[in-house]
């Protein structure tokens, strides 16, 4: 058995892993998601007090968030997604939409801070079960 | 390159660290995940999620420990969470048997007995239950030490050894039957 298993790597490379390649496009995709995740957290943490999309955009520009330059639509797509998730509540005031963190939204923001505060042990080992 | 030195990493922004991790280990992580899920599209998605998760968890990483082992633990836990999820259990993937797919084009030329035996071996390994399959993979594909395996799988070393022995026995039995 031991003898046969020596060929295991070669065999797997030729069969299961034949077309498996971690390419440049995967990396780019991951970069995009990292930026988005970061921006989402920034936006959510700014909405503890209710703000309109315009106000939010202006504040992000002031903060010098580069991602949104010529790409302000991204802010709205993030807000929309957060609204769908139930993280934001919406209120109309004289024809303008105002957004604000809900309880769940606040938890979401804290969770990320929690991620930062939590010990490494808890993040990686935190109460996992093994799949049989 | 198993762990980065403390001085360097403290200065690097997290995105750059993830970038280096992707360059060094992207392929390995993708294969590791593939070994669990047997579906390329799913494996690619999970791998992306794993690196984003890693980015978000980096502030908690203690830079005196091995970042590779840390990344492996995140990858394995994330993939197992997927396997346990409702989605993985109830939605049938389109691509059911990658071995069949790969074989069909080639088996004409590869009718050497040796080759068939090897295919059988790989098939038998990937038909094992997850807990035996993963130890065979980490041991014989990645050539990890007992200590590393115990670390990434969060088991103690004696459990590890028992499981590996059991996995080999199971394999032997299954291959004899064929």
TrEMBL record, chain A:
<dbReference type="Pfam" id="PF03551">
    <property type="entry name" value="PadR"/>
</dbReference>
<dbReference type="InterPro" id="IPR036390">
    <property type="entry name" value="WH_DNA-bd_sf"/>
</dbReference>
<feature type="domain" description="Transcription regulator PadR N-terminal">
    <location>
        <begin position="43"/>
        <end position="110"/>
    </location>
</feature>
<dbReference type="InterPro" id="IPR005149">
    <property type="entry name" value="Tscrpt_reg_PadR_N"/>
</dbReference>
<dbReference type="InterPro" id="IPR036388">
    <property type="entry name" value="WH-like_DNA-bd_sf"/>
</dbReference>
<protein>
    <submittedName>
        <fullName>Helix-turn-helix transcriptional regulator</fullName>
    </submittedName>
</protein>
Automatic annotation (TrEMBL), chain B:
<dbReference type="InterPro" id="IPR039425">
    <property type="entry name" value="RNA_pol_sigma-70-like"/>
</dbReference>
<dbReference type="Pfam" id="PF08281">
    <property type="entry name" value="Sigma70_r4_2"/>
</dbReference>
<dbReference type="InterPro" id="IPR013325">
    <property type="entry name" value="RNA_pol_sigma_r2"/>
</dbReference>
<dbReference type="InterPro" id="IPR007627">
    <property type="entry name" value="RNA_pol_sigma70_r2"/>
</dbReference>
<feature type="domain" description="RNA polymerase sigma factor 70 region 4 type 2">
    <location>
        <begin position="120"/>
        <end position="171"/>
    </location>
</feature>
<comment type="similarity">
    <text>Belongs to the sigma-70 factor family. ECF subfamily.</text>
</comment>
<feature type="domain" description="RNA polymerase sigma-70 region 2">
    <location>
        <begin position="21"/>
        <end position="85"/>
    </location>
</feature>
<keyword id="KW-0804">Transcription</keyword>
<dbReference type="InterPro" id="IPR013249">
    <property type="entry name" value="RNA_pol_sigma70_r4_t2"/>
</dbReference>
<dbReference type="Pfam" id="PF04542">
    <property type="entry name" value="Sigma70_r2"/>
</dbReference>
<dbReference type="InterPro" id="IPR013324">
    <property type="entry name" value="RNA_pol_sigma_r3/r4-like"/>
</dbReference>
<keyword id="KW-0731">Sigma factor</keyword>
<keyword id="KW-0805">Transcription regulation</keyword>
<dbReference type="InterPro" id="IPR036388">
    <property type="entry name" value="WH-like_DNA-bd_sf"/>
</dbReference>
<protein>
    <submittedName>
        <fullName>Sigma-70 family RNA polymerase sigma factor</fullName>
    </submittedName>
</protein>
<dbReference type="InterPro" id="IPR014284">
    <property type="entry name" value="RNA_pol_sigma-70_dom"/>
</dbReference>
């Amino acid at each position: 058995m031991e003898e046969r298993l020596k060929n295991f790597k070669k065999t797997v490379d030729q069969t299961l892993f034949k077309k498996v390649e971690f390419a440049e496009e995967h990396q780019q995709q991951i970069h995009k998601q990292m930026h988005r995740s970061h921006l989402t957290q920034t936006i959510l943490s700014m909405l503890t007090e209710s703000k309109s999309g315009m106000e939010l955009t202006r504040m992000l520009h002031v903060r010098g968030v580069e991602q949104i330059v010529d790409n302000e639509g991204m802010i709205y797509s993030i807000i929309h997604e957060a609204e769908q998730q139930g993280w934001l509540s919406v209120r109309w005031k004289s024809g303008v939409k105002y957004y604000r963190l809900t309880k769940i939204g606040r938890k979401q923001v804290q969770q990320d801070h929690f991620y930062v505060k939590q010990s490494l042990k808890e993040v990686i080992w935190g109460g996992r079960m093994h799949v049989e | 390159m198993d762990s980065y030195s403390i001085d360097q990493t403290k200065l690097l922004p997290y995105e750059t660290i993830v970038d280096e991790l992707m360059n060094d280990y992207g392929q390995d992580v993708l294969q590791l995940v593939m070994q669990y899920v047997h579906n390329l599209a799913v494996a690619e998605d999970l791998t992306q999620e794993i690196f984003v998760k890693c980015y978000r968890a980096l502030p908690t990483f203690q830079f005196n420990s091995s970042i590779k082992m840390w990344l492996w633990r995140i990858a394995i836990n994330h993939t197992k969470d997927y396997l346990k999820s409702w989605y993985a259990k109830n939605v049938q993937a389109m691509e059911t048997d990658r071995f069949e797919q790969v074989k069909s084009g080639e088996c004409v030329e590869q009718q050497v007995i040796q080759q068939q035996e090897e295919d059988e071996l790989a098939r038998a390994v990937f038909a094992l239950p997850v807990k035996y399959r993963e130890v065979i993979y980490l041991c014989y594909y990645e050539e990890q030490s007992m200590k590393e395996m115990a670390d990434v799988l969060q088991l103690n070393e004696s459990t590890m050894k028992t499981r590996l022995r059991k996995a080999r026995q199971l394999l032997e039995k299954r291959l004899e039957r064929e």
